[in-house]
Amino acid sequence: MASLWTEQPELEGRHVLLRPMVRSDGPAIVDAASDGRLWELFYTSVPDADGIETYLDTALAEKGFGRAMPFVVIEKASGKIIGATRYLRMNEDALRLEIGATFYAKRTQRTAINSETKLLLLQHAFEALNCQCVQIRTDAFNFQSQRAIERLGAKKDGILRNHAYLKGRLRDLVVYSIIANEWEGVKRNLQMRLARG
User: Fold this and answer.
1) Which of 64, 71, 84, 112 would be a feasible disulfide site paired with 18, CB 3.0-4.6 Å?
2) What is the strand order of the sheet 133-139 is part of?
3) Does residue 164 contact residue 170 with C-beta atoms inside 8 Å?
4) Strand, helix or coil at 70?
């Protein structure tokens, strides 16, 4: 029997629609990443035209195993895919998951897009999936991402040293989390940020 942990939803806000990623989204995902040539950033993994099939293979395989729910981020004003994100490392028994593999076209960065996307994902995680902990990780050199995560109200758990190789470099990951009893404050913070524009 299917559960909320296996049935991927569509999540809709004022600015964005998050819908399940499908293989035919590949060209639009590459187009979004082309705004800023995001694949050139050494501290993150964003697909280019040569890497999109591997990217989709991984995302959809993890979904098939029940460990992930990959979403495309659609800007409602234009109707275009402007990024991607996903639930990762989903663990229904422990009621925890990670939000990650997130990127947005450069023109939409530092706008309401990220705040609303995170609000939708966190709200579903805590209020529908009954999560007790949601984790967010980022590269130690991705200072923009760290600031964005901290603005959400997530707490830094620590650093995973020499965690994995990325683009020929053994990288450190900064780990953040939000736990269930912090959700109401984080939710109000995000709602306030969105109301202020």
Assistant:
1) 71
2) 11-12, 16-20, 69-75, 80-91, 96-104, 133-139, 169-179, 155-166
3) yes
4) strand
